[in-house]
Amino acid sequence: MKFKIFETYEEASAYSAELLAEVIRTKRDAVLGLATGSSPEGMYKEIIRRYEAGDVDFSQVKSVNLDEYVGLTGDHDQSYRYFMDTHLFNHVNINKANTHVPQGVGQDLAALAKAYDELIENLGGIDVQVLGIGANGHIGFNEPEHELHLKTHVAELKPETIEANARFFESREDVPTKAVTMGIGAILSAKKIILIASGESKAEAVKALEDDFISTHVPATLLKLHADVTVVLDQEAASLLTK
Ligand code: F6R
């Protein structure tokens, strides 16, 4: 695990965008594993800038997102499909048909989840997975538990996650309590992983990435088993690191 620490979130975002752009330049039809939330927002802004400057071409790129709220359709302004369209896809030359976000609405979410794993497999796996991290150490919506799922599944959100995400909704009651999320298996199978964290609220979870343990109770620590993880941090998120 490599730690890259920057003074500001903007610098960290520019660095992450460059890592992502490099993957696409090396492989035009790269499969990007993407995250939503505030952590990668700056990176998306930066990569759009690079696209506009002609430095990166999305025409052959494919994407699979980590997660989606159960109960929200893609036209809901807090759905992760909507987030991706408005923060990235509408601004670059990606073919929307090549962008995939798990479905949070449907008769049989388990069958849809299974189909999502098959889709990832049929795409040949993920070339680079972008991750944020929850203050409780979650990645995707793989929340702290005794056991974690390898496959895409419906997850019950922890109260602290609902609390943290309430800032995007009118009230806490509006935050969905469940989400469909990629499992730990697809994440760890990605060829390369970029984890972005910013702000003091993430410092403790980030510290767990440095310490010498893995635990399903801090799901992000499982990333220590992966050979190519870059953790991109601003100073606040890195403030508890000791090495
Ligand atoms: C989002 C996701 C989540 C977030 C995490 C951090 O697709 O999978 O794991 O990355 O909750 O959220 P932010 O970046 O909003 O602090």
Fold and architecture overview:
With 243 residues, the protein is an alpha/beta fold. It has seven helices and ten strands. The protein has helices spanning 9-26, 41-52, 80-87, 109-122, 159-165, 184-189, 203-210, and strands spanning 2-6, 31-34, 62-65, 67-69, 99-100, 128-131, 153-156, 178-181, 192-197, 229-234. β2, α2 and β3 form a beta-alpha-beta unit. α1 crosses α2.
Distance between the termini: 13 Å
Largest sheet: 7 strands, parallel
Q: Are there runs of 5+ residues with pLDDT below 50, and where?
A: none
Which band does the percent of strand residues land in? Answer: 15-25%
The average pLDDT value, as a whole number, equals: 97
Question: Structural class of the secondary structure composition?
Answer: alpha/beta
> Helical amount among residues, as a percent range?
25-40%
The total count of helices amounts to 7
* Number of strand segments: 10
H/E element sequence: EHEHEEHEHEEHEHEHE
Ligand inventory reads: fructose -6-phosphate
Radius of gyration: 17 Å
> What order do the strands of the largest sheet run in, or round the barrel if closed?
1-10-9-6-2-3-5
Quickly describe the structure:
The protein is built from seven helices and ten strands. The protein is of the alpha/beta class. It starts with a strand and ends in a 9-residue tail after the last strand.
